[in-house]
UniProtKB/TrEMBL annotation, chain A:
It comes from Lysinibacillus mangiferihumi. Keywords: Membrane, Transmembrane, Transmembrane helix. It comes from the Bacteria. The keyword Transmembrane helix applies. The chain crosses the membrane at residues 21-40, 46-65, 86-113, 119-143, 155-175, 208-230. This is ABC transporter permease. The keyword Membrane applies.
From TrEMBL, chain B:
Signal peptide: none annotated. Residues 5-226 form the ABC transporter domain. Pfam families: ABC_tran (PF00005). GO terms for molecular function: ATP binding; ATP hydrolysis activity. It comes from Lysinibacillus mangiferihumi. Keywords: ATP-binding, Nucleotide-binding, Transport. This is ABC transporter ATP-binding protein.
Length: 236, 292
């Protein structure tokens, strides 16, 4: 597993496909905090949304980094396709984790906020970034080449699902009219609602933890769906 | 010969199209088996099932050797491998779980066998298709492989690269590897293959290999003084064509069995015949191309 992880990571680094999303992330983060002071949770809300979109880009490039023919060979050496795709998810998660840390710590380090963030702000900020990163990875992977043969459809699919997920936040009142529908749709709106709390928040309400847990559970279910379809396709 | 594996009643269907229907055959140690058939006949599908890449709908592949190791070389040679041969083979070996030291020794050994020592530090993306194909065979041999599966190994290679790869495969055969391959190149089948399996109409049948079936007859073209008698050689030969030349001699084109060729030639030379041409007749080869 570690050898496969090392190989996949080295291969991805050599493709240079990470450069565009990485520089957009750096650029947007720097520009966002160019003027001070900034509100804490609002700023984190913006950067977590940015990371949500960019993680879709990272995910597709990571899943498509290896040559299609080489992928078959690597899976044979790894003795199973599940372990192969688990390592790809792990690389995405590590990138999501690192960029979440940068998003949370960078404004604190440069003193970009109007007030000193509390531990609760930091925890809330990290959970917002990391949960949306995992959700973006899970949603985007569904549209990668294993399940969607046409490359263009992959990109359209990823862009559509990420934008629709964000749009749900503003269409919530309409969606609520169909009972149970909101539970089926990607829960990006939960994170955005939590991050619209006031900066004067002293403690994280217990309900927030449950909402973050639901985002993680939803992501795990989507990842499970990916493996379910993948293994069904192998049998076909 | 020891049996490496048995393919038993394998069937595979893609949507409504049945590609393989109850296919059974055995693969033995130290032999080269070629799967032939028209495009879309199911050759690659069968190789993938044997290699464990896809599952069959029914049937089984029974391995008769404990922990049988199979090396697989896909039809499509990866074009964008961003490593040098040494790095690439090292990564593949590590992923397979081979410890560092024996892996390095194996890589050195493979680079030497495949004449790639000089190119060990050049990125594979800069290689020709033939060299890339060699790397793909090398990765399949990293572990102590019992059976190598090669899907169209010569496909897309120029004649020079084909010759080089043929030599490599011949040396692997001499080293005792069992190889299962698909190919369209008669030359490869002629020089290397022990058994040919034809996939036709979702079924498999064994064809006579060239080594057994070919060269049964030879054709001799010779000039013969018209006053001489051919009686003593008539029992060996079958006359196909006869014409009178301007010098009054006869030119004959005859067919003779391989085993009688030496005797026939000796008799002709003793009767003052002048041999113009001697060539093997390979009617099987002509028939064989109808399978592609």
């Amino acid at each position: 597993m570690m050898s496969l992880l090392h190989y996949q990571f080295s291969n991805y680094i050599r493709t240079y496909k990470y450069l565009p999303p990485f520089f957009i992330f750096i650029l947007c983060t720097v520009v966002n905090y160019a003027f001070v002071p900034n509100p804490i949770l609002d700023s984190y809300s913006f950067t977590s949304t940015l990371l949500f979109l960019l993680m879709g880009w990272f995910t597709v490039t990571i899943f498509h980094a290896e040559d299609e023919g080489q992928k078959v060979i690597t899976i044979l050496h790894a003795k199973g396709q599940n372990v192969y795709f688990v390592t790809l998810y792990l690389i995405c998660i590590v990138i999501g984790f690192c960029l979440s840390c940068v998003s949370v710590l960078y404004p604190i380090i440069i003193g970009a906020f109007g007030e000193r963030p509390s531990l609760w702000h930091i925890i809330l900020g990290f959970l917002a970034h990391f949960s949306l990163s995992i959700l973006a990875i899970a949603l985007s992977a569904i549209f990668t080449r294993e399940l969607v043969k046409n490359r263009q459809n992959s990109w359209w699919g990823v862009l559509s699902i990420l934008i629709i997920s964000l749009a749900i936040a503003s269409l919530k009142s309409v969606i609520l009219q169909v009972k149970g529908l909101l539970w089926l749709l990607p829960p990006v709106h939960l994170s955005l609602e939590m991050m619209s709390s006031d900066d004067s928040i002293n403690v994280i309400p217990a309900g927030f933890y449950w909402q973050f847990i639901w985002i993680f559970i939803y992501s795990i279910l989507v990842i499970w769906l990916y493996f379910f379809i993948l293994n069904r396709k192998k049998k076909m | 010969m020891n049996t490496l594996m048995e393919v038993q009643n394998i069937s595979k269907q893609y949507k409504t199209k049945k590609v393989l229907d109850n296919i059974s055959f055995s693969i033995y140690g130290e032999e080269i088996v070629a799967l032939v058939g028209k495009n879309g006949s199911g050759k690659s599908t069968l190789l993938k099932i044997i290699g464990g890449i896809i599952d069959s709908d029914s049937g089984a592949v029974t391995r008769h050797v404990q922990s049988l190791k199979i090396g697989y070389v896909p039809e499509i040679t990866p074009s964008h491998v961003l490593f040098t041969p040494e790095e690439y083979l090292f990564h593949m070996g590590k992923i397979s779980g081979i410890p560092r030291k024996p892996l390095q020794e194996k890589i050195d050994q493979l680079l030497e066998i495949f004449n790639m020592l000089e190119a060990r530090s050049t990125r594979i993306t800069h290689f020709s298709k033939g060299m890339k194909q060699k790397i793909m065979i090398m990765q399949a041999m990293l572990e102590e492989t019992h059976l190598l599966i090669l899907d169209e190994p010569l496909s897309g290679l120029d004649p020079r690269a084909q010759n080089e790869l043929e030599k490599t495969l011949l040396s692997l055969k001499e080293k005792g590897y069992s190889i299962l391959l698909t190919c369209h190149e008669t030359k490869l089948l002629e020089n290397l293959v022990d058994r040919i399996l034809l996939i036709e109409g979702s079924q498999v049948k064994q064809l006579e290999s060239f080594s057994e079936a070919s060269n049964q007859n030879n054709q001799i073209v010779f000039e013969f003084p018209s006053h001489k008698s051919l009686d003593s050689v008539l029992s060996f030969i079958q006359i196909n064509q006869m014409r009178t030349l301007n010098n009054g001699n006869q030119e004959l084109t005859v067919t003779v069995k391989s085993r009688d060729t030496d005797k026939a030639l000796l008799a002709l030379l003793q009767h003052e015949a002048s041999i113009k041409e001697l060539m093997p007749l390979n009617s099987k080869k002509e028939q064989f191309h109808t399978h592609f």
